[in-house]
Please model this.
Amino acid sequence: MPGRLEPDEMPRRDWLGLAGLWTAALAVGGSLVGMARLPKPRVSPEASSRFRAGSPLEYPPGTVKVLPDQIVRMIATEAGVAALSLVCTHLGCVVGEDADGGFLCPCHGSRFDAQGKVLGGPAPRPLRWLEVSQAADGALVVDAAREVPAGDFYPPTSGRPA
Amino acid sequence: MSEINLPQLDRRIKWALLLTSLATLAVLLASALAENVFAPWRIIRGRYAGILAEKAGDARGAALARQFENRIVQNVLPELGTVDRCITCHPGVDDPRMTDQPQPYRAHSGDYLIHHPPEKFGCTVCHRGQGRALTFEEAKAVGHHWDYPLLPPEYTQSSCGLCHTGPEVEHRGGEVYALGERLFGEKGCRACHRLSGRGGSLGPALDGVGMKVRGQLPMAGVSGEHTLPQWLAEHFDSPQRVVPGSLMKPPQLSREENTALTVYMLSLQNRDLPRSYLSPEKHREYYLAARPAPASGEALFSQFCSPCHDTGEIGIYDKFYAAFAPAVRGVAFAQIASASYVEAVIREGRPGTAMPAWGAAAGGLSDAEIAELRRYLLATPVPQGSRLAEPILARAHDPNYRSTGDAGRGAAIFTRHCTGCHGPGGAGLLAPSLVTSTFQRHAADGFLYATIAEGRANTAMPGFLSRGGFFERDIEDVIAYLRKLGGQDRAASPVARAQGQP
Model:
C-alpha cells in the first residue's frame, strides 16, 4: 500500500511511457505524411497552360482568328472574346473547318457545329471553351487548362487597369 | 492510472524516446512551416497580393487581384532549354502599374517585355542566372558551381546580340551593345583576333568567348569578382595584369567603351538558338559572315591592318612590340614592290613575326579581297620628288635580275651596316626579319636591290647607294648573303649562277 514513506511510483512511470510512445507514433506518422508528399512535387517543369493571345485591339467584334501554335480559335463578338479549343474531344486530333461553319475531325469523322456542339461521330463531348482573362498589361490570356461554359464571352477592357 | 501491460522499460529509455520523438516532431513542424508558410517566395507573393488589392481601382484591377494565386509560377521553354521561375517573386514585371514599386515587385524597365513576352523568352536567356531558383541568392548562381551567373545590369544588353545586330537595336534599347559592336570594328580587334573565320592569329579566336566559364579563365590577376564579365572588363583595362605575358596592346578605352566592348564580347555566344528567335537582320549578318560582301581595300586595311601599320604611310615604331611595322603604303614601297610579292606576303604572312597570314585558310580573306588590298597598298600616290630613278625602278621590276655577289663579303658588310636593326643573321630585331620563308621566296632580287640602294622613304631604312657610301657591288654581295641566309647558296650552285645570268 502506498504510504507517506513508500510513495507509489507507478502512475508517473506510466505517464512517461505513454507520452514517449505517443510522441514516437506522432513523429513516425508525421514523417510518413511528409514522405507521402514527396512523389508529388509542388511544381514540375511543364509548359504553362496559359498563353497570351495578343492585345484586345486585335479582336474587334466579328473577328475570328485561329492561333495555330496553340490550336485555338479566337472568336470576338459584341459580347466579348472567347477561345474555342480545336482539339477533338475523341482522340485529340486537330479538327478542321467544314463547309457550313462547323468543324470536322479528319481522324474519325466527328462533326461539331460552330459552337463546338457534337453533331455526329464518336466525339463524347463538345469542343472545349477555354477561359479568357486579361494580363496586367492588357493582353488577352487564355488558360488551356480551364474550361468555361459554351457561349461564355469575356468582355475585355482596354488600356491598363487603374 | 491502472496497471498497463507494458514491458518494464528503463526510465532512461523512456525519457530518451520521449525527447527524441519530441525533437523529431519539432523538426517536422519546422520544415512544414518553412515549406508551407514561411517560404520566401510565399511571403513575397503574399505582400504582392496586398499591393494588387491596394491598386485594384477598377474591375480589371479587381479581377487581377482576385486571380492572383500564391503558388510557384514559371515559364517553361523547351526550345530555349530554360525553366524560369523568376516571375514567382517578380510577379509585377509585366504590370505597368508597378513602376513605382520597390524590387522585387517593380515592373520591367523599358519596353523590352512588350517585344519579348516572358512566356516566349523567359528571363535567363537575357539575364543568365539560375531560372529554377526560388530565392534571390540562389537565382544569382554565384560561386564555382555555376557557369553562368546573373549578369550585372550594365552587361545585360549583351544578350541583344544573340538575336539582333547592333544597328538594329541602337535606338531601341541596345545602345551599349551597338557601341560595343562598332568599337570591335573601329579598334581593329580583328587584326589579331579571328571571329567567324576572319581575322588575325596573334590572339585567340573570339567565337563563343561569351560562353566561357570561370574555370577557363586565369583568374589570379582579377581583383574583382571572379566572373567572365569582370575578367573581360579588367582585361581590357590591363591585359598584362590579367594575363601575364599577354601580347595584347592595352586598347585604351573609356569606362563606357570598356563596358560596351565587354558587352559585345559577352554577346559572342555561339548558342544554338532556334532560328525563329533571330531577327531577319541577324540572319542577314550570319549570311554575310559566310559570304562577305566585297569590301574596298581601304575598309579592309582599316579593319585588319591599321592597328599595327596605322595609315601605312610611314614606318611606325611600335613601343609595345619594340619593333617597326613597315610602311606598307610608303612611297618607296609602292614603287618597287610587285603585285605578286605583296599578295604573297598578305596571304602567307611573315612566319615568326607579328604579321599573320590572311589567306582564306588562315585569316579568312578571299583571293579577291587580298587583290583589292594589294591594289589599295600599291595605289599610293607618289609625289614628283619621291620618284625613284628610272634604272632602279627598272631593276626592281626586272624578273630576270639575279644578284651575282659574294656572300662572304656580303656577310661582313651586313654585320657592319644592317644587324643594328635587322638583327644578327637578319633574324629581325627592330626591323623586320629577312629570313622568313615568305620573304625569301617572294622578294625578288631586284626588289632587295632597290630597297638597299634607295632605302624606304619615311621609314628608318636608309638608302645605302646614294647616301650610305655603298657601291653597287656591295649591294649585290649583301643580297647574295641574304640568299645564303635563306638557304640558297648561289656560290655553291653554278646552275643557279648560270640561271642568274641569262
Notes: Chain A touches chain B through 37 residues (CB under 8 Å). Residues 10-37 of chain A form the longest helix (28 residues). Helices of chain A lie at 10-37.
